[in-house]
Write a structure and sequence with these properties.
Number of strands: 17
GO molecular function, one term: hydrolase activity
Radius of gyration: 21 Å
Family: Belongs to the gamma-glutamyltransferase family.
Largest sheet: 7 strands, antiparallel
Strand order of the largest sheet: 6-3-2-10-9-1-17
Protein name: Gamma-glutamyltransferase
Pfam families: G_glu_transpept
Number of domains: 2
InterPro entries: GGT_bact, GGT_ssub_C, Ntn_hydrolases_N
Mean pLDDT: 90
Shape: globular
Structural class: alpha+beta
Distance between the termini: 19 Å
Length: 500
Amino acid sequence: MNRPTPLDVAISAPNEAAADAGEQVARAGGNAVDAAIAAGLVTMVNEVGIVSLSSGGFLTVQPAAGGPPQTVDGWMDMPGRGRPLGGGTWDVDTAYGGGVTVTVGPGSVAAHGSVAAMQEAHDRWGRVPWPELVAPAAAVARRGFRLSSASRYYLEHVHDSIFGWDPVSHAAIHDADGEITTDPIVLPDLAEALDLVAAEGAAALHTGELARRISGDVLARGGILASEDLAAYRPVVRPSLVAEVGDWTFGTNPPPAVGGVCVAAMMRLMDGRPAAPLPDGRWSEADVAHLVAVQRAVLGHRLAVLDHTDDLAADAAALLDLVDAGGLGALESGSTAHVSATDSDGGACSLTVSSGYSSGMVADGTGIWLNNCLGEQELNARGLHGLPPGTRLLSNMAPTVGRRRDGATLAVGSPGADRITTAIVQAVAGFVNGDLGLAAAVNHPRVHVHRAGRTDEVVKVETEPSMYFGGVGATLRRPDGHLVAAADPRRDGAVRLVHP
């Protein structure tokens, strides 16, 4: 087989092993899409409690050949075809993320789709064979891994309440004294599960042996995820939602996700702020005040309208029309992993994936921690099983790509539940409007309006780096082909600049 000519590739990933995977695939001839997928698959192994193979996600791609950006939707579907809904869940209160109540157990498991979306993106834009993208993740699963700081931080809050009720889950992350382990974790059966994904593609998780084991175990324990739900799942490719900012055209996640709508609205409302040059590299008080007003308006509109609508696409379009017509004045009245990659051909890929807060169970014979995306209460305004089977759930995710008129390309995104959108917008605004370097824009202190527009609204200002405010990963190809990568110091981010 003739190998494609290697490209220069920039990668920003949540951890060193994920970045290594992206580099390995790039050196084998992979492009930005290939590198992002390989890195993303590793996070499904070693970012415990954040993401797993039982996950949903989105990839936004700027094709190297030009043309408009595209988003591949691999987010969760509501399961329960042909069976009564309800049961198999309980609530857990945790101080994580500023305090949240989550629903866990087998009844909280939704129909996954992230690997199916990855394969769809690979089939359209990838350059190297699919098994080579999966191989680094299988290798990490075989040799074992230590918990990342993000995983450990989350597990400190929930290692007993969520991850302690299932025997396999409990054994994997606890030592003999019941404390969170510091030893390498090797999950029984996970490497073999990844071997099946390498050989069969996403079908292994939807119609193959892994799908049968996952659905069988969920149903046996009182959940509603059946084999019919997994077999019926399909990723969807959509034109990205576009926002024009200066000389940049950004593409982000369109409805039925809500995160990209918020990013697009906030980008349009930033109105050239922060003003460049920035004194001492810091936003002015006036620019920060404008940012808070923008967040309050957009996030408040989301909480009041978008989270409850019967037609998100129509209401999202109405919001953006309102923003374009009247500006800011017209509006005033969970856990994820992210990878960004760009390449010397001008391609960019932004990938965000999540398993929610985790159901706490490992599906029998698979080594796969199952998601709890039906139990993310802040994303399920209609209740635990309130949507018809087959319906896409709501998502905060907003993987974003950009192309400037001079040919520069950017990939950017973040984990961080409801802080995803505000983290991305602040990094992009600092880079595009404030003329900060990419790393300086990512590193800059942030603010976040929590529970915008409610009586318990809190404006949270970052005084020292905190993973609460997200974990932006960004990569850039300059017009001359020079590559730049930045990983958020708030998490264990890692970057690679690959020049084969």
